[in-house]
């Protein structure tokens, strides 16, 4: 290694995961739009018999987005960010290159098997944990391979200081590993009864215990995939794109440890007014409200990073995506604690307000951040100019409109549901039947479906822009980061 020679990073694995992000994003979002229109127009459930029903397609949608689109985006950004902040190339270790490519191909096999089994109706019926035990084992193998990649790169790094994004990636790996192993403990049915299918299983937990473990996993999967890994991205990409250093490194560490200690105890808010112990429901509510502090700590830190440089919002579409993503993160992490307050939950539980809450975070925070990350990475990985800035603007406003239509319609629908379900006459009898509430909500379902369709069209624009960029004019050097007024770009300098 000679001082002064630039380090050449190997993005082959990052590129593979980038393409899978695009593919799974299209499939997952398309399924989401289909089932949204099924809610508005139920006859769409019966186009292909049982295989086109909401109940069959909905797990495909959630798993496709969470474990297809989102995880692919996280893996792709890790293989990009990890090398650059640790000042080491994957190509320096043939072992890590092998692990990275094995990680990708086993992951693709896993997702393909998940699609086939879920489409066939083979499921544990546990939300976000629908895969049966043979695929759970493959999940563990894939996850361990990612861990080997993370700690392998850290082990051979040149940069001794671990940037905050690395902390968040490590937390994602360790948190999900622990949660998944405990929640997915199950026994094949054939071992118990001596007959039936080997692929079918039953949970090692029963009744209320099963629900407690499931939502300890379910909510913290949101914590360590939806939240922690995406924060890892924005702490890297926003400073790089804007040329601004992170506002406060201490605040980033405070928020990190706050999220680690508080998030784990908030899952009980999914079980308010159930047979779960009342003290556990109360604990879930309290920790959910306290969770506002570290969540907003991260979001405010991100927004203050742009202090004095807000003019970049007008000039750079990627800054728009990331800042609005952070804003949606703030909305979602305030809305969740509000919904976990028992008096509010009494109105909102089981209503359409809940999917509204999930999707303003998923579409706004996660979707926008992953797309912004891939936009930033593309010219640097492929050494090509981004195809069209104007298409990025069109995509931004189309998807923002779609998100607003989606969550606002679901807020109104949810509050309407809750009020109708609890309305009584002077004798204490219910004023409305269940079907009355369904009929009233149909217009809001149409608005939601149209909002989802706008977001999907925006995603197609994103994919088109990325693919066209691969054939755009070549760059002689890496794109320059924005330079703040009176300062210098916050760029990396790597030497071999």
UniProtKB/TrEMBL annotation:
Molecular function in Gene Ontology: oxidoreductase activity
Named cofactor requirement(s): heme b; Cu(2+)
Bilayer disposition of the protein: Multi-pass membrane protein
EC number: 7.1.1.9
Protein location: Cell membrane
Primary residence: membrane
InterPro entries named in the record: Cyt_c_oxase-like_su1_dom, Cyt_c_oxase-like_su1_sf, Cyt_C_Oxase_1, Cyt_c_Oxase_su1_BS, Cyt_c_oxidase_cbb3_su1
Signal peptide start-end: none
Protein name per its UniProtKB record: cytochrome-c oxidase
Primary gene name: ccoN1
């Amino acid at each position: 290694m000679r001082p002064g020679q630039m380090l050449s990073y190997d993005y082959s694995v990052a590129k593979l995961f980038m393409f899978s992000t695009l593919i799974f994003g299209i499939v997952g979002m398309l399924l989401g739009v289909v089932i949204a229109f099924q809610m508005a127009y139920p006859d769409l459930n019966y186009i292909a018999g049982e295989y086109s029903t909401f109940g069959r397609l909905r797990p495909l949608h959630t798993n496709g987005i969470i474990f297809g689109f989102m995880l692919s985006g996280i893996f792709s950004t890790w293989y990009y960010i990890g090398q650059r902040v640790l000042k080491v190339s994957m190509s320096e270790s043939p072992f890590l290159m092998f692990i990275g490519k094995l990680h990708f191909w086993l992951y693709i096999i896993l997702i393909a098997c998940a699609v086939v089994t879920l489409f066939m109706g083979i499921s544990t019926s546990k939300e976000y944990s629908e895969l049966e035990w043979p695929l759970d084992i493959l999940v563990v193998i894939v996850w361990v391979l990612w861990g080997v990649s993370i700690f392998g790169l850290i082990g051979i790094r040149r940069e001794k200081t671990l940037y905050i994004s690395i902390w968040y990636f490590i937390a994602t790996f360790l948190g999900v590993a622990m949660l998944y192993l405990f929640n997915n403990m199950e026994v094949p049915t054939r071992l118990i009864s001596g007959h039936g299918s080997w692929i079918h299983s039953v949970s090692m937990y029963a009744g209320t215990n099963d629900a407690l473990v499931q939502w300890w996993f379910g909510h913290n999967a949101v914590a360590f995939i939806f939240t922690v890994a995406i924060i890892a991205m924005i702490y890297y990409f926003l400073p790089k794109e804007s040329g601004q250093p992170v506002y406060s490194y201490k605040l980033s560490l405070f928020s990190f440890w706050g999220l680690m200690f508080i998030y784990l105890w908030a899952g009980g808010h999914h079980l308010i007014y159930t047979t779960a112990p009342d003290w556990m429901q109360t604990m879930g509510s309290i920790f959910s409200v306290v969770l506002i502090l570290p969540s907003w700590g991260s979001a405010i830190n991100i927004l203050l990073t742009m202090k004095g440089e807000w003019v970049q919002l007008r000039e750079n579409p990627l800054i728009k995506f990331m800042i609005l993503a952070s804003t949606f993160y703030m909305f979602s992490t305030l809305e969740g604690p509000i919904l976990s307050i028992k008096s509010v939950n009494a109105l909102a539980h089981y209503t359409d307000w809940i999917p509204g809450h999930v999707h303003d975070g998923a579409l706004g925070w996660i979707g926008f951040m992953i797309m912004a990350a891939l936009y930033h990475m593309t010219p640097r990985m492929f050494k090509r100019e981004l195809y069209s800035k104007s298409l990025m603007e069109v995509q931004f406003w189309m998807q923002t409109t779609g998100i607003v239509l989606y969550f606002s319609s679901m807020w109104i629908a949810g509050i309407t549901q809750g009020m109708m379900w609890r309305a009584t006459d002077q004798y204490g009898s219910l004023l409305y039947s269940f079907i009355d509430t369904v009929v009233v909500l149909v217009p809001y379902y149409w608005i939601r479906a149209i909002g989802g369709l706008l977001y999907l069209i925006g995603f197609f624009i994103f994919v088109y822009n990325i693919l066209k960029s691969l054939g755009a004019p070549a760059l002689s050097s890496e794109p320059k980061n924005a330079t703040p007024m009176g300062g210098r770009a916050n760029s990396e300098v790597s030497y071999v």
